[in-house]
Amino acid sequence: MMGEGFLEIVFFAMVAIFIILRLRNVLGRRTGNEPPARKTLANDRSRQDADDNVVSLPERQRSGAGEDDIPLGTAADGVRELRALDPSFSADEFVAGARTAYDMVLMSFAAGDTDTLRALLDDDVYTNFQRAIAEREGRGDTLETTLAAIKSSELVEARAVGRMAEVTIKFVAELVNVTRGKDGDVISGDPRVVQNITDFWTFARDVRSGDPNWKLIATRSEN
C-alpha cells in the first residue's frame, strides 16, 4: 500500500512539471484589494491611466515560423522586427500561449496561488499581486472569479526595445467577479452578472538571455 501511495505522488509531481514546461513552451521567446490598476485582474477591476506592469511568458521551442501568421496592420512591422531577433517567433503560437496565461493568472490571483503567479509575472507585477492577495486574506475576504469565455485575443503591438522583445495582446473576455467577506456576504460584484472586459497585457523577454521565458510586465483595461 505504501508503495502505491509513493507511486501516486511521483505521478502527480510529473504531471505538474509537464504542465509548467508546456506553458513555458507555448508562448515563444521572451521578445482583495486588487493589485494596483490592471494589475488588478479581479474583483472591482479598477481602471488605471498610468502604465501597468505585465506578465512574462515562457519561450516556445519552435523554429522556422512562416510569414502566414504575421498579423495585419501596425503590428506586422513589429512582428517582423522581432523575427529579425528571433526567427522562431510565431505570432499565432504566442497568442495561443497568452490565452493560457490569461486564464492561469486570473484564476491564480483569485485562489491566492502565489507560486504560479511567481512563475508568470515580472518582479514588479508579482509584488503588486502578492500585496493585494495578502491584504485580501488579512481581511478574511475571498475572491471568486469565473472566466466565462475569452471572446477574442489579438496581437496588437510588437516591438524591440534594445535587447528586450515586447508583445501586447488585446483580450476581450466575459468574467464574473465576486468578493465575499468573512461571513460569506457579497462585498462587491454580482454572481449573476457577467462582465464584458477588454484587457491589454504586455509580455516581455530579453532575447539575448539564455532564459527563454516570457513574463507579464504590464496590464491595462478599457473597462
Main attributes of the structure:
Nuclear Transport Factor 2, Chain: A, 5 helices, six-stranded antiparallel β-sheet, 223 residues, alpha+beta, 6 strands, disordered N terminus
Radius of gyration: 18 Å
Number of helices: 5
> How much helix is in the residues?
25-40%
Order of helices and strands: HEHHHHEEEEE
Give the C-level CATH assignment: Alpha Beta
User: Which secondary-structure class do the elements indicate?
Assistant: alpha+beta
The CATH topology? Nuclear Transport Factor 2, Chain: A
How far apart, in Å, are the first and last alpha carbons? Answer: 54 Å
Low-confidence stretches: 1-65
Largest sheet: 6 strands, antiparallel
What's the number of structural domains? 1
Mean pLDDT, as a whole number?
77
According to DSSP, the number of beta strands is: 6
CATH architectural name: Roll
How does the overall form come out from the CA principal axes?
Answer: globular
Strand content: 25-35%
